[in-house]
Amino acid sequence: MLLRRAHNLVCYWRDGAFVIQNYLGGSEVSLAPMAADLLAAFTDWTTVDEAVTMFPDHDPDSCRAALAELHAYGFLVSEDERERDDRLAEHWETWSPEAGALHFSSKDAPYTESPEVNEDFRAGKRPALFKNYPAADRILLPRAPLDVDAGFVRTLYARRTHRAFSRAELPLPVLSGLLAMVFGPSEFLDGHDFGALMKRTSAAGGSRHELEAYVAVSAVEGVTPGLYHYNVLEHSLELLDPAFTRERATHLSFDQEAVAEAPVTVFLTAVVERMSSKYRAPRAYRVMLMNAGHLAQTFALTATALGLGPFQTAAFRDSELEDALGVDGIAETALYVLAAGIPAADGRDGEPTAGLDAFRRAALYPGDHA
To answer: Which residues are the signal sequence here (predicted)?
Structure first.
């Protein structure tokens, strides 16, 4: 059987141990450093017997046993196992290992409570809310309000994250306007060598607009519940899965109540090639994440202006969500979950204003003791 070293490996020292990680497959194992020498023998397709001959000073049976272990961990792949490994090499080649390791090793992380964090904060281990330079000279800024659009200012300060929604159906024109203003094109530009480029109402590095929106409809007037893809050019919803339910969306979002109650949930994905075809350094991965943040903020402000309550979360079941969307998680990968609905009117979504006790517990500047 021919084997080859997986494309998606990183090696490092941690706590005195030599660690090999397959960031696509998720395996992470502490091994003897010689494992790196064994893996180096499999840059090209090679049989175990051929590789063993490269280590004449070591026991052949021990080498075979070690190679079988490396294969079992996914550090070596056979020709029958190469598909996902090859896809990653194709779509993430110019960004790996730096961006690939971060993205794939942080997928499918458990969404758990961390009581020790609350204990640390109760014990006074709180980072400062603000940064200052006590010795620096200062200019006190004018407090007179600027003559800006009052509606925009109200929207800006009214924005907050909502987690409780009315069960009322969302009017279709409201959903249509939300999708158009956030995800639709605002105009098209001549990108010269890059052809026609789309602009949105959000900033996007190089106008690559690699982000796609999949819309889970639970309660919208005139729209059959299900999972849709938002077709940006047509301004249409393409039905992908009529069996996709509110309960399914909630499960994929780690059973968060906001998604359970929202009439609309939007799953953001990135088509990696749109970004990596132009920006071929791993740093472009940061830009892709920034773009998701830009769209999410525009979504939140637009929803607020439309009288809706926005919600956003990075807590979702990556691989299950990508399976549900019908994307492979490599060429197109899930990044963010957004939702919106009519805010609940029963006070369930209220947030207490900070009082004197809260400020006593806070560290305002570095060096303050809460």
So the answer is: none
Q: What angle do CA 168, 171, 177 make, to 5 degrees?
A: 135
What phi and psi values does residue 178 have, to the nearest 5 degrees?
-60, -50
**Among candidates 271, 160, 147, 128, which has minimal Cα distance to 209?**
271
CATH top-level class for 2-90?
alpha beta
Domain ranges of the chain: 2-90, 150-341
- Rounded to whole angstroms, the Cα distance separating 201 from 233 reads 15
Q: For the segment 114-157, what is each residue's pLDDT rounded down to a tens digit?
A: 888 888 888 878 888 889 999 999 999 888 877 778 889 899 99
- Residue whose token pair is 């940064």: 131
Query: What is the CATH code for 150-341?
Result: 3.40.109.10
| Amino acid residing at 105 | S
What are the E-state strand segments in the chain?
Answer: 2-5, 9-14, 17-22, 27-30, 46-47, 76-78, 187-190, 196-199, 211-217, 226-231, 236-241, 264-271, 309-313, 332-341
Q: What is the C-alpha separation between 289 and 215, in angstroms, rounded?
A: 20
324-346: average pLDDT = 96
